[in-house]
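Technical appendix A lists one of the benchmark inputs used to test multi-chain prediction within the project. The record comprises two sequence entries:
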Amino acid sequence: MALFDVSGYKSHSELRGQILGTGVGHLIDRPNQQFSVPVGVDPSGFLKSCSREGGVSIDLNHGTTTLAFTFRHGVIVAVDSRASAGSYIASKEANKVIEINPYLLGTMSGSAADCQYWERLLAKECRLYKLRNKQRISVSAASKLLCNMMLGYRGMGLSMGSMIVGWDNKGPGLYYVDDNATRLSGRMFSTGCGSSYAYGVIDSGYREDMTVEEAYELGRRGITHATHRDAYSGGVVNLYHMQEDGWIKVCKEDVSELIHRYRKDMF
Amino acid sequence: MFKLSDKILLLCVGEAGDTVQFAEYIQKNIQLYKMRNGYELSPKAAANFTRKNLADYLRSRTPYHVNLLLAGFDETDGPGLYYMDHLSALAKAPFAAHGYGAYLTLSILDRYYRPDLTRDEAVDLLKKCIEELNKRFILNLPSFSVRLIDKEGIHDLEKLMPVGAK
């Protein structure tokens, strides 16, 4: 791709040549960042052998539901808190939102390790940007940084579906970034295996001119109903509201209590 | 949708061929029961009969790979919806869905269903589900046929045809 070559980015096939050539290989995603790896390492091949087809069964943590939508008064971000390893619940109160800075949030879904590592790296890069340019990074640029990190490791088995939410000079921003290096700007996203259930609820209840309380309730409802139907989502709803002067954490409520409250009103 | 009797409908989806074969087999057997015994099977009995047949074939060389919804109105018990899957599980449920569309619509049904919905509210809820499919489902499903079962029997309602995405 022309832009790819012009930007001076090394494709990972070139990196392979470097790895096989020298005794100790290096995976480089930017000049000041290197991983030392043994010769002949092949991450995606290794991960394939760990899946069910390979005989062993190490399931990465894929289960989750996260959602975010913009409306008149900012952006609502809601996530569940269940970390599953196959059918085992590794944690019931995992933190799936990373607070990058008072004006930027990142959500995590997919492999917990990948999300935590790459989003913390993004937080570091955002801080460095601010120190170098004396200006806070825009949401568009921050999401592009994360996207390019994913691009450097394409085909190597990363698993990450994240939403970058912020408020900058251009107003509220919501970007979806995933491990294929897809980057989409939009007004409503939901990720994870419970996402289809969340879409059902937030699509049918969404209005652009909602009040703040109605938007909170919609976010809560989206996660709660998704956790009700999806086995790999659960725990608590962590709800954030991105406003002009930064984000606030709205609430942290247990989904089983919420679903009982909703059922009681119904029957 | 297969009419098993005046007040029982069977919805059958799954492997091509199996669906019609199995549904017609059940349909004819329900009608045979009526002819032999002079009265119709109740929806609950019909559902259990269907499940038993599905289970009997499950471990044969020719299992039926079908997912079913059986809906009926009983004089004494009122309306009933029975969910059956290809492994021959049977559950009575207030609402149900099969297939990939279920991933999008079940949460809408969870959210807005109440046991005391009026007929118009129920059709509106169905419209909400279809709008969601029109918006998020990868396949374009241009029209849906709708039927209602009450104490008078089976009624054909207006076809639902969602128009262009927003």
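The radius of gyration of chain B is 16 Å. Chain B touches chain A at residues 103-108, 110-115, 128-129, 131-132, 135-136 (CB under 8 Å). Comparable benchmark entries are summarised in Table A2.
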